[in-house]
Design brief:
The structure is a homoheptamer of 254-residue chains.
Chain A: H1 5-8, H2 24-35, E1 39-47, E2 50-57, E3 74-78, E4 81-87, H3 89-110, H4 116-132, E5 141-148, E6 154-159, E7 165-167, E8 170-173, H5 177-187, H6 193-208, E9 219-224, E10 227-230, H7 233-242
Antiparallel strand pairs in A: 1-2, 1-8, 2-9, 3-4, 4-5, 5-6, 6-7, 9-10
Amino acid sequence: MQGNSQQQAYDRGTNIFSPDGRLYQVEYAREAVKRGSPTVGVRYQGGDDGSGVVFVAGGRLRSSLQVAESIEKIHKADDHVGVASAGHVADARQLVDVARRQAQVEQLRYGEPADIESLTKEVTGYIQEYTQAGGARPFGAALLVGGVDADGTPHLFETDPSGTPYEWEAVAIGGNAERIQGYLEAEYEPNVGSDGALELALRALEDAAEGGLESEGMSAAVVDDDGFREFTADELADAIAGHGLDGTDDPAED
Amino acid sequence: MQGNSQQQAYDRGTNIFSPDGRLYQVEYAREAVKRGSPTVGVRYQGGDDGSGVVFVAGGRLRSSLQVAESIEKIHKADDHVGVASAGHVADARQLVDVARRQAQVEQLRYGEPADIESLTKEVTGYIQEYTQAGGARPFGAALLVGGVDADGTPHLFETDPSGTPYEWEAVAIGGNAERIQGYLEAEYEPNVGSDGALELALRALEDAAEGGLESEGMSAAVVDDDGFREFTADELADAIAGHGLDGTDDPAED
Amino acid sequence: MQGNSQQQAYDRGTNIFSPDGRLYQVEYAREAVKRGSPTVGVRYQGGDDGSGVVFVAGGRLRSSLQVAESIEKIHKADDHVGVASAGHVADARQLVDVARRQAQVEQLRYGEPADIESLTKEVTGYIQEYTQAGGARPFGAALLVGGVDADGTPHLFETDPSGTPYEWEAVAIGGNAERIQGYLEAEYEPNVGSDGALELALRALEDAAEGGLESEGMSAAVVDDDGFREFTADELADAIAGHGLDGTDDPAED
Amino acid sequence: MQGNSQQQAYDRGTNIFSPDGRLYQVEYAREAVKRGSPTVGVRYQGGDDGSGVVFVAGGRLRSSLQVAESIEKIHKADDHVGVASAGHVADARQLVDVARRQAQVEQLRYGEPADIESLTKEVTGYIQEYTQAGGARPFGAALLVGGVDADGTPHLFETDPSGTPYEWEAVAIGGNAERIQGYLEAEYEPNVGSDGALELALRALEDAAEGGLESEGMSAAVVDDDGFREFTADELADAIAGHGLDGTDDPAED
Amino acid sequence: MQGNSQQQAYDRGTNIFSPDGRLYQVEYAREAVKRGSPTVGVRYQGGDDGSGVVFVAGGRLRSSLQVAESIEKIHKADDHVGVASAGHVADARQLVDVARRQAQVEQLRYGEPADIESLTKEVTGYIQEYTQAGGARPFGAALLVGGVDADGTPHLFETDPSGTPYEWEAVAIGGNAERIQGYLEAEYEPNVGSDGALELALRALEDAAEGGLESEGMSAAVVDDDGFREFTADELADAIAGHGLDGTDDPAED
Amino acid sequence: MQGNSQQQAYDRGTNIFSPDGRLYQVEYAREAVKRGSPTVGVRYQGGDDGSGVVFVAGGRLRSSLQVAESIEKIHKADDHVGVASAGHVADARQLVDVARRQAQVEQLRYGEPADIESLTKEVTGYIQEYTQAGGARPFGAALLVGGVDADGTPHLFETDPSGTPYEWEAVAIGGNAERIQGYLEAEYEPNVGSDGALELALRALEDAAEGGLESEGMSAAVVDDDGFREFTADELADAIAGHGLDGTDDPAED
Amino acid sequence: MQGNSQQQAYDRGTNIFSPDGRLYQVEYAREAVKRGSPTVGVRYQGGDDGSGVVFVAGGRLRSSLQVAESIEKIHKADDHVGVASAGHVADARQLVDVARRQAQVEQLRYGEPADIESLTKEVTGYIQEYTQAGGARPFGAALLVGGVDADGTPHLFETDPSGTPYEWEAVAIGGNAERIQGYLEAEYEPNVGSDGALELALRALEDAAEGGLESEGMSAAVVDDDGFREFTADELADAIAGHGLDGTDDPAED
C-alpha cells in the first residue's frame, strides 16, 4: 500500500478523516497486522467430541538459538478464554494484558467468569479510543479471543485495529490471511472435535506456506469445557507430521 | 468527495472553520457514514396495531464463516429504546455505550425511564464536543434512536456526525441513504403496524439493492409497548421471502 | 468569503491575530451562522397589549418525513426566558444548555430568576473563551436571548460568535439577515403587542424569502408576563395565511 | 500593518520573539484595539470642583434598532473605580470581569477598597500571561482604569495588550487615538472639574470625527468622591449639543 | 539581528538548539532587552559615605500627558533590596513579582531577610525554566537586583534572559548598554558614596544620550543601610542640572 | 539506513504508521542500538557445572584516563538477575532502573523473587508505551535480562526497542550483532558451564573484532545458583589472554 | 557543525531519531557545552598527600567591572562533593540544584552522605528524561561531580548532555576540551597530591590558551578528606604565577 500525494494529505494523523471518509492510520495499522505471520482460530461444536476453540499460530525464529517457546502468540486470558494474536507483537501484548485485567475485573464484580463476547468488546472499546483521540497511534495488532461460555457455547471473536469485533466459525489473521481464509471457507465443518479443528487449521496454514510447516516457532492451544490448554511442542510436531504437513511428503514444491 | 487545494487548507483540523463557514472534518465523517451499509428506521402509530418503531439494518459478511449474528448494528439501549447505527462500526459502538450509560443514569436520577428525545440529545451533545475540541476526530457514525415513551408515543431520532438531532417518521442512514429515503417518502404511511413498517423498510432497502436482499448479515428489531425485541434470523428471512424481496422473483435484474 | 494566500497565513488558528488585528476563525464562524436559515426576534412594549419578545425561526425540512416539530430552533431557557438560534445547530444546542444551567445556578444562588442581561453575558463570556484559548474552534452559532425581567421590562439580546452581546428592539440573525434587518428597520414600531410583533417578524421573513413562507419547519414563540409559550403549528400556519404570507396571494413572484 | 515574508516567519505564535526582539502577536493585538471606536479618559484635580476621572466612549450602532445603551464600553468595577475599553469587545469584557473579581478579592482580604494602581496591575499581570504562555492569543483590547483612591487622589491608568500599565492625565485609546491624543495634549488643564473634563473629552473626540458627534452609541461616566456615575443619554446629548459638537454648527465640514 | 534561512530553521522554538549549540529564542529575547531604554546600577563601598547600590533608569514618555512617575522601572523588592529593569516592561513586572514573593518566602522560612545573591538566583532559576520547557517564550527583560546584605556588604546582580546571574560593581542594561558600560569602566571608583554613584550613573547615561538628559521619565533609587529609597523627581532633576547634564550647557551638540 | 522522501513522510512521529505498516522511529531506534559496542549473553545448563547465564559486554574508552570500570553495561537487577545493555547508554540506564524497581515491587507484593520472564515483560510493556503514545521517542537501547529462576532454570531474554521480548540460548545485541550471532549459532552448546559460556562469548566477540580483544572497557558477569557476580578486570583479562584472544597470537590480522 | 537538508529533517525535535539512530538535539547540546570556557577535573590518590579531586574552571569576564567571584562554575553540592560545570551557565545551575537536593534527600533517607557515584547517576537520570520526553530541550551543560566517599576513595564523574555518566582520573569539558584532554593524557600521574593535581590542571589549561592564563574569571577548588574548599583568588593567582603560567614568561606567544 503506497501512499500518493492526495493520500498523504490525510494519512499522518489518527484524528483526521480523508475526504472520502477513510481513516488512513487505521488502514496502515491493518498493514502492520499483515506483516506478521498468520494465526488461525477454529470453533468446533455439535460433534461427539464436545465444543471448543482451537488456535494455531505461525511464528518466525530469528535464529536457531532463539527459544521457540518464547514466541508467545497464544495466551491464556482466563481459565476458559484464550487469546491469539497477529501483527506487532509488543502492541498485541498490551491488548492481552487489557483482556486479562478485564477478565479479573468482571470476575470480581459479578462473581462469575466474563463471557467471551463482553470480554472482546471491552478490548475493542479500548482499541477504538486509540483511533480517535489524538496523541497516540492505533494498535498494529489483531487478536482472536475464543473460549467456552458458562452455558457451554463456544465463541471465537476477532478484534481488528479499528476496534471492530467480528465473530467467526473459523478465521485467519496476519500474513497470508486471505489465502488461508479461502482454504477455511472451502473445508470448514463445525462438528469435528478438537482434533479435526487442529487439523483444519494446520492444513490451511500449510496451504499458504511454501515448503511445508515447521513446528519450531509455531504454537497451538485449545479451549474447551476443561479450560485453556496449550499443545506441547511434541504434540504439535506430531500433528504436523501425522498429517503429512511438514514438507517431507511434498518434494515437488520448490 | 475529493479535496482541492483550497479545501485542503482547512480540512485537516476538527477545530477550524473554512472561510465559508464549513467544518470539513464533520463533512468527511458524514462520508464515513455513507461508506457503510444502509440502516432504516420506521415509526408507526395510529393503526389498530399499536405504535412503535421498526429498525432494519443491512450488513456485509466478510466471509461465509463469519457469524452473521455478530454484525450487531441494532442494540437495545434500554427496555423501551433501541439504537441502530450506520458508518464506522467501532465509533458507533462507543456511542451506543454512551446511550446505555445515560439511560441508566436517568433511571437512577429520576426513578423513571429516560424519554427518547432527552436520551438522543445526551448523545448528540457528546458527539458535538468531538467536533469542536481539538485533539480528537468526529465520530464517523450515525445512529437511529427509537422507542416508545412512557406516555405511549413512539419516537424515532437520528444523530448525525455534527451532533445534530433530527426526528423522523421514517429515515435511512448509511450507504444509498438518499435513494432509500426517496422510496420511503413515496410509500410511507403511519398507521400500518409493525408488520407494515417492517415491510416498508425491507422494500425500501430492496429497491436500492442490486439483486434482492440476502437476510444473512441483515438484522431487524421492533420497539413497541412490550419493549425492545430483535427479529430472529428466520423471522427476517421469512419476511424477505414472503414479500418476494430475496431476488428469486427478479431474474431480469442482473 | 474566499481566502487569499495572505489571509491563509493567519486564518487557521483560533489563537492568532492577523497583522491588521482580525480574528479570521471568528469571522469564518460568522459565515457559518449565515449558512443557516434566518431567525428573527422582536421586542414590543408600551402598547395596550403589554410587553414581551416574539421569536420566529425559519427552518428547512430535509425530507417530507422529517418531523417538523423537531427542528428546534427556539428553546425555553427559563420560565421567563426564551432562546432562539441560527447557524450550526449542534453548536447552538450546547450554548442553550449553558444558558439553562446558568439560569438554574442564578436561581439557586440568589433565590430569584436571572435577569436577561446577566444571563446573556454568562453565555457571551463562555463563547469568548473559545475564541482565545487554543485547542478548540469558536461556536458557529448566534443566539437571541429574550424575555421579561422581574421588573416587567422586556429585553432582547444577541450573542455573536466573537462573544459580544448586543441588545435590540428587533433583529435578524442567520441567512439573509441583512435584508431582513432592513425590513425591520423600516417597519418596526414598539407598541404593537405580541400579535403585531409576530406579524412584523413574519413579514420581514417573507420579504426575504422567495415564493412565500411555508409554516412547515418554521417555529415561533412569545415570552411575556405569563412566561414562555411556543405557538402551535396551527397558530403559526394561521398567522402566515392570515397575513397572506404563504405565497398563494403572490403569483407574480417566481 | 501588512506582513512581509520575513515577518511572517515569526508572527504566528504568541510565544516566539522575532530576531529583532519583537512580539508580533502583541503588535497585531494593538491593531485590533485600533479597529474599534475611540475611548477617552480625563483626570481632573486641583480645581474648586474636586477631583475625579471622566470617561467618554464612542460607539457604533449596527442598526437603528440596536439599543444604544447596550454598547457598554464603560463599566463600574467597584464603587470608586470605573473601567472603559477599546478594541475587541468580548475580550474587554473578560478583562473587566478580572478587574471586578480582583476588587472583591482585595476588599475581602484587606477590608478596604483596592487602590486604583494595584487593581490595574492585577489586570496587566493577567494580560501579560496571555502574551507568554503558548496555547492562547493576547487580549485584543485596551482598558482605562480610573477612579479616586481612599486618600482622595484621582488616578487614570491604561492597560495595553502587552500587559504594560501606563498612568495618564488624559488619554485616548482605540481608533484615531493618535489624533485625539494630540488634541488632549494641546488643550489639557488639570483643574477644570468634571464638566471641564467632559467637555475636553468631547471636543477631542469631535476633532477627530467627521461631521460632528452623535450621542447615540456614545457613553460617558465620571468617578469622583461620590463614586461611579454614568451620564444619562440626555445628559450626554445635552453636553454635546451645548458645546456645539453635534455637527449642526459646522456646515463647513464635509 | 536579521535571520537567514539557515538560522530560521532553528529559531522559532524555545526548546531546540541550533546545530552550533545556540538558543536563538534566548538571543532574540536579549534583543528585546536592547529595545528598551537603558538602566544603570552602581555599587559603592569603602568610602566615608557607607555602602550601597544606586539605580538610575531612563524612560520614554509616550506623551506629555503621561504621568512620569508611572514609568516604574525601579521597584522595592524587600526593605533592603531594589530591582531595576530594562526591556519588555510587562515581562519585567512578572519577574519583579517573583522576586518579591521569594523575599517573603525566605523571610517566613528562615526568619531573616533573604540575601541578595540567593534572591537573584531564585529569579534566574525561574527565568531558565522558560528557556527550556516548551509552550512558552523566554522573558524579554533583564533585571538588576541590588542592596545590602545583613552583614553590611552591598551586592549588585544582573539577571539576563538566559537565566544567568552576573555580579557587577557597575553595569548598564538595555538600549545603548555597550557604550554606557564603556563609560562606567573608564570612570568607576568604588568609594564614592551614594552621591558619587548617582553622579557616575547620570554621567554615563548622558554620555550615550543625544542632547542631554531629561529628568522626566527617568527614575533613581538608592539602597543602603537605611534600606530602599527612591529619589524624588526634584532630587533627580537637581542632580542632573547640578552636574550640568541637562543639555543646557551643551549647545554644540545638535 | 538513509531515508528517502517517501519514507520521510512517515518517519518523524512515534505515533504514526507508514502506509506499509512500519514504525520508522522504532526502526531508527534499532539503528541506535547498532551504533553501540556489542553485548553477548550465553545461557548454559545440563552440564556438570550447573546452570546459569554469562554476559560479556564490549565497550569503548574515550581516553586512557577514563576509568574502565565505569563503563557499566552489566548491572545487577536483583540477587538472581543480571541485565546487560547495548545502544544508547543513558536510555539503557533508565530501563535498568525500571527492572530494579519492578523486582522490588514483585518481591514486596508476592514475598518471593520475580521470575526472569515476568520481570522482562514488565520492562517490554514499559518500552512499548514509548512507541505508541505521542510526545516521547522510543528507547534507543536493547537489554539482555538473564538469571536463574527459583526452580533452578536459567533464562536469557532480550528486550528490543519495539518492546518485544525474545528468549535465547545465546544472543548478541549492539554493533556487529549479526556476525557475532552467526558465530554463536555455529558454536553454541548448552552444557558447558560458566567457563565454557564465557569462552564462547569471548570467542564470538573476538571473531567480529579487528585485532583481538582489549579487556579494558569490557566487562563480564555470571548469574548462577549463587546469584549475580561480576568478573574482576583481572579475571576477564586472564580469560581473554588464556584463550589467546588478545590479538597477540594473531599478527596476520591487520 | 552545520546542518544539511537531510539532517534538518530530523534535528528539530528532542523526541525523534534520525534514520541512522542519532539524536541530533543531544549532539547540538554537546556543541553548546563546547561554546563555553573549559573546566578541568583531576583525581589524585596513592601519594603521601592523601586523596581527593581538584577542579579548575576557566571563565570570561564580560567587563572589568564584573565581580570575578560571581562567575560561579564550581559549586559545593555537599560537604564532601563538588560540582564543576561547562556550557550553558543557566542550565548548569539547574543541574547543580538537582545534585544538591538529591544529596539532601539521600542524607535524610539513609542517614549518611550520598556516595559520589549514586549522586551522579541521579543527575544523569534527570538529564536523560529531557532527551526523551517531548516539550523540552536537552540541557546544554556538562558537569564534573567529584569528591571523596565515606570509605576514603576519591571519585570524579562527568555527566554529558545525553545523560551518560563517565568516570575519570582526569578530564576536561567545555571549549578546547580535546586539546586539554590530550595534555592530561600525556602528563597525568595519580599520586601527586592536591598541589600536583592543581598544577597539572593549570598547565593543561595553559597549553590550550593563547597568551597565558589570567586568574581573573578563573576558579579552583579541592575536595579531600577535609571536605570541599575553594581556592581564594590570591591562592589561584599565586599558583598560576608560581608555575610561570601567566604569560609573562612567554613573550614569544603573540
